[in-house]
Amino acid sequence: MKFSTKNQTVRKLLLSILIACCLYTELFSQTKLNLSGQWTVALDSLDIGVKEQWENRLFDTQLSLPGTLDDAKLGNPNTLTPELEKLQLTHLTRKHHYVGAAWYAKEIEIPKDWNGEKTILKLERVIWKTTVWVDGVKVDTEQNSLIAPHYFDLSKYLTPGQTHRITLRIDNRKFFDVSYNNLAHAYTDHTQIIWNGVIGEFSLENQRAVHFDHVQVYPDITAKSVKVKAVIQNNTARAMKLPLHVACSLKEGKGLAGQVDQEITLSAGQQVVEFTLPITKEILPWDEFHPNLYSLHLSLGQKSISTDTALDFGFRDFKAQGKTFELNGQPIFLRGTLECNIFPLTGHPPMQKDEWLNIFQTAKNWGLNHIRFHSWCPPEAAFAAADQLGVYLQVELPIWSLTVGEFQSTTEFLYEEAQRMIKEYGNHPSFMLWSLGNELQGNMSVLNKMVSDLKEMDNRRLFANTSFTFEKGHGDRPEPNDDFFVTQWTKDGWVRGQGVFNAQSPSFNKNYNSALANVHVPVVTHEIGQYAVFPNIREIDKYTGVLDPLNFKAIRNDLQKKRLIQQADDFLQSSGKLAAILYKEEIERALKTAGISGFQLLDLHDFPGQGTALVGLLDAFWESKGILDSTDFKRFNGPLVPLLNFEKATYKNSEVFHADVSVSNYLQPFHESQTIEWSISKNDALLKSGKFDVQLGMGFNDGLGKFSVDLSSIQEATKLTVQLQIADTNYSNSWNIWVYPASETVNFGDVIYTNDVTEAIQQVQAGKKVLLNPDWKTTKGLEGKFVPVFWSPVHFPTQAGTMGLLLDKQNAVFADFPTDNHTDWQWWDLNVNSTTLIIDSLEGGTPLIQMIDNFANNRKLALAFEGSINEGKLMVVSIDLNSNLEKRIVAKQLLQSILRYMNSDDFRPATIRNPKWLADNLQPQQQEQQKQDATAIY
């Protein structure tokens, strides 16, 4: 048959259409197969699986993936019972423990219409190394990332329409030196656990023959444009021209903000396409108050049949201006806490966005805007949640090492991890700060080079070499290429309360300006706080997952054995109130320091590892302990905080209270003046008040105004509350001060005062009332301290290790000494000039000023106790109530209150059944008490 010219033209057209349809079917047929479900598994701790070809073995045990062996109760079951020993108190205990290789297998039917050029297996979040076989044939790559999905190209191993056996060998042993004592939170049993399995997306994807491998965006607010760098994979082995369409729109809005249409020429293989997308509408920047997100959609090919990709990003301009962080032209202050991979139900981080939204919203409810991921990088879901809520993230490589640079293989692994972090998470506006790791030591020049290299790779965030370091010659100054500096001290002094609060008398007009005088980049204070709170025994019932709280159970059992369990709730509340007081002053000093641009708490919530470090006002589940609510915490930890500068906590009534007002304002520029209202009250009864107008700029507003109050009208020992309020707003803050009569003389009445235990016993046995006040410097016991346990008494066992006072404020002994049931600032002088008595073996009597012991010991401790021997009555106080009382007005007032109590009918102490204890334990020691330096614990 012959065709006419017309028919031949039609024939060519039809043939062209047919070829084009075939081509585009080849290019763009795509689907994703969810591999979630039941898989078979076998454990291989002896590494015999490869030798015996387990990739072809039929395994008997099943488990659900995504999931872990711990979820499936596979591995070595825990056989430990709760005992108060270091091993038990180190961290939560895995109910089932396994470290080694595990094999997972499943038969997978490949869809018939999968005819793309590439089929990719994705395993999101694995520890640590993955090897894959298909039908017994080993895939020729391995993956070992701790922070990014493991990807495998299975294209040449799978046939559409057939069933294939996929076998995974996952080995969770340690492959590189990234974790000192396995403490880095990417690889640890202290917070998350060293689990084995897959916990995130688990899928097979049939990619189009031409597809976007990944896309990076570089928004520019000033230029009103977005630079786009698209990596495109062309697996057709032939060059082609294809139309590229790019559209940008506000995620929650309507209409285009900009678009680009152009034709691009693709050669075979992988290539990078770069272009700039102009933004034609007003740009809405991204920040904590307005987390505006934009969507970028890229489409390649015919509009009816196309390959496309989409991603979210935000416009933000984040930089260091001298000592200040600036975001979108305004100064910002990072109010942060750490996230150390603490998820006690699963032992691994959540992989769903909703769970991260709950965590970040809780942090924001408590006034925070910043999270530091200590020695690990979170999954995609965390970044997406932070983007949505406007949370500023500091992310780190999976390393906490003291041997940086010693092993080239480790350095290469870290470079690879860094590149994966950029590819997977680089577009997220919340990813603002990048520190290479935690407290890194070793060859610091290796870190310097890595930071410089990363700046070349990715200029969208600020970098630091390490989050502090103890490396000699470093750590007290920024590294040469640090964009910001994370530290606890500088060459010129401390920048956190650990080195200050026990050594210096309470003063509320202090800052860290002098310590930062020679630092010229923004400073973020490192892991401030770490004030231990007594365990919440009631928390035990929350542990319904893969971890057993043997540490909590051991503490509970010990308290029961020592008949202290009835005080456990009071220990929690009193120690927690002290921690909250200290956290308040920590935060306020940072806010008052112009050279500080942020702080990172350790921690708002508990850290269950490293010796059970219960340093949070929230528990490990991000839930309240009932110590303080978020509204009260946010008064001193928020974007707008009224601040007060005053000399001290305690006053004579012959003095005048002087105060200077300042405001930390990182909320908004105020174009009109604001009114600050101040007041002083006693038990909610107003004593004096005033107000004045101020102009608030962005940042720290110092020297806004002063006020003074004559205290002469206060005739008895009194606690006063000073409050500041920004008029017609919810922004307020308050502080306690204590006022004592100046002229009152100490009246001993018929009480015999002595510091000699022998004399005291003789006088008591003679039927007298005796106040025994032994010299605290030579009294046997524990160092008197105001601050509680730092971090953990197990992790740092050389510290005194007490956890604050437990008091009964209604007890008659405090009738003339106003106090709450917990330590507050008026107790500072009394605590540091004391020795804590260990009264475990004292039989009878009653502690009146009880000191809470740390949970690793649970001893019965006191600074004061009373008791009777026959007809005599005794009060023992191991606080200095004798020296320099005219200046030590708090000690004088406590002495006066004790004496009035002892001279009253209320003084009816219980019998001491073993009075010999007094002579055995209260004799002076030859060596005086030594005060431990704050750095001695290291």
UniProtKB/TrEMBL annotation:
This is Glycoside hydrolase family 2. Residues 34-170 form the Glycosyl hydrolases family 2 sugar binding domain. Keywords: Glycosidase, Hydrolase. Residues 210-316 form the Glycoside hydrolase family 2 immunoglobulin-like beta-sandwich domain. One of its GO terms (molecular function) is hydrolase activity. Residues 321-463 form the Glycoside hydrolase family 2 catalytic domain. Pfam families: Glyco_hydro_2 (PF00703), Glyco_hydro_2_C (PF02836), Glyco_hydro_2_N (PF02837). Belongs to the glycosyl hydrolase 2 family. The keyword Hydrolase applies. It comes from the Bacteria. InterPro entries: Beta-gal/glucu_dom_sf, Galactose-bd-like_sf, GH, GH2_Domain-Containing, Glyco_hydro_2_cat, Glyco_hydro_2_N, Ig-like_fold, Ig-like_GH2. SUPFAM superfamilies: (Trans)glycosidases, beta-Galactosidase/glucuronidase domain, Galactose-binding domain-like.
